[in-house]
Specification:
Radius of gyration: 29 Å
Helix content: 10-25%
Strand order of the largest sheet: 4-3-2-1-9-6-5
Strand content: 25-35%
Distance between the termini: 67 Å
Structural class: alpha+beta
Number of helices: 9
Length: 462
């Protein structure tokens, strides 16, 4: 992921004789340099005096990339009061390697830029050289940092994927962890994660609920509406449910228009995101965020579906606003300051104790939970509480297996993931009992605690 961009800087290699203008992209493990030059072209025209007309244009060309961990030191110097320098030195043993050591020059008035860039470079160098963090699955494993550069000219798919989460390593310069013991590649975050023993195997985990909102697309026709201005895009989105999006073409570029979902931090009725174009190594790429560029709009949309809450393509049936989803989505998108008015009296109602809910089974183990759920209908579930943690156990559909998942309880909120949080266990359970049965997080009927049933029966008998 792109950490910082320096639009223009004077730079040279230690082995060079003069400075040139460069654009720099700083990543966690790499520094990528693009040389900025001026190109002259002749168009067979002459001016009034018979001289050839020359057209000049600015050109940016890929120059070279450098590994941050190769810089043994990054230091500032000042040869005079007017000019400051940053030296990125690469040593092999005691000897400086001039061909892979760099010098940045900052003229008078740019001392603050020098300080800022030096701090960013030093921070990235330390991160790239930091000790590999090992999660619970790799504590005793041997591992090394994995780095790979993608060949732009290759027609073969070269991107590797993480063994843990299954997602690809992104970007031209890929980095992660190569576990020599597992003989697999991992994202740094996946490699460092600690797995809860009660989750069981990876297939027992719940999916992120937000992933289930994303309606798959079969082709560009699902979301692309051709040339269209902002006003007509708003008209198209108005009758649709929140989370619906379209891609249109306006003023020589793609624009993504969406009706923000309640999960979206955008609090406008509609949002319009222009797609930018950049030329790299002679080829045109498009991007929504710096650091992630794509050859076509289909790949860009696929990558940003979750990050920009692009849930329902406009031509999908899921984009239709129905009575059911209007109650669960439209009402909750009202700004907080509009949800309460001074003329409505506030009534404080005591939150019921979670232990009184019919689905609560108290302090029981995973084995006890599976025994109670045996021979129960698909989707039947219970909530238990042991070792200070709430856990959800349920019967999986189309199988006789069970799924166990931790319910997070932080700052008074309950959640299956950190994406969607609820004020109580009852609210959490009610939410997933009312989603579509096709939803992987759908909960069926709660299984009442047999001990609670006995107590309740005895009380009614009295």
């Amino acid at each position: 992921v792109l950490s910082h961009e320096i639009a223009e800087i004077d730079m040279k290699k230690v082995s060079g004789t003069s400075y040139s203008k460069f654009q720099l992209l700083l990543f966690e493990n790499y520094l990528v340099a693009f040389e900025l030059t001026e190109e002259e072209t002749y168009n067979n025209r002459v001016d009034f005096w018979g001289n050839a007309v020359v057209t000049k244009r600015n050109v940016k060309r890929y120059y070279q990339h450098f590994k941050m961990k190769d810089f043994s030191e990054i230091r500032k110097t000042s040869h005079d009061k007017e000019t400051s320098y940053i030296h990125l030195n690469h040593y092999q043993g005691p000897s400086l390697v001039p061909s892979s050591s760099l010098v940045f020059r900052f003229p008078f008035g740019k001392q603050s830029d020098c300080e800022d860039i030096h701090n960013k470079l030093e921070e990235l160098r330390k991160k790239s050289s930091a000790e590999i963090m090992k999660g619970s699955d790799h504590l005793d494993h041997d591992c090394i940092v994995f780095r790979k550069e993608i060949n732009d000219n290759s027609e073969v798919m070269q991107h590797e994927s993480c063994k843990d989460c299954g997602n690809f390593f992104k970007g031209k310069l890929q980095t992660g962890i190569n576990c020599l013991t597992c003989n697999d590649l991992f994202h740094k975050e996946c490699f460092a994660s600690n797995k809860d023993d009660d989750y069981g195997t990876a297939e027992e985990k719940f999916d992120d609920p937000e992933d289930l909102l994303i309606t798959p697309t079969d082709s560009r026709e699902d979301f692309y509406l051709g040339e269209m201005d902002q006003k007509n895009a708003n008209k198209k989105l108005k009758p649709k449910r929140r989370g619906t999006f379209i891609v249109r073409f306006s003023k020589d570029r793609f624009v993504i228009s969406k009706k923000p979902h309640k999960n979206d931090p955008i609090r406008k009725e509609y949002d319009h995101l222009p797609v930018s174009t950049v030329t790299l190594t002679g080829e045109k790429w498009i991007y929504l965020e710096k650091g992630f560029a794509f050859k076509n709009i289909d790949d860009l949309i696929k990558h940003h579906r979750k990050s920009h809450k692009l849930y329902f393509p406009i031509n999908s049936p899921d984009s239709e606003l129905t009575e059911r989803n209007s109650m669960t989505e439209e009402i909750q998108t009202i700004a907080p300051e509009r949800r309460q008015t001074n003329n409505i009296p506030q009534i404080n109602v005591e939150e019921p104790n979670n232990s009184k809910d019919e689905f609560m089974h108290g302090d029981i183990s995973k084995e006890d939970a599976e025994e109670r759920l045996t021979d129960k209908a698909e989707g039947t579930f219970l909530v238990r509480h042991n070792n200070g943690t709430y856990k959800l156990s349920m019967v999986l559909p189309n199988s006789r297996k069970f799924k166990h998942s931790m319910i997070h309880h932080t700052e008074g909120k309950f959640s299956l993931t950190n994406q969607k949080k609820f004020d109580s266990l009852r609210d959490l359970v009610d939410n997933y009992m009312n989603v579509s049965p096709k939803n992987k997080l759908f909960l069926g009927k709660p299984l009442a605690d047999p001990n609670s049933e006995k107590i309740f029966k005895n009380r009614t008998d009295d």
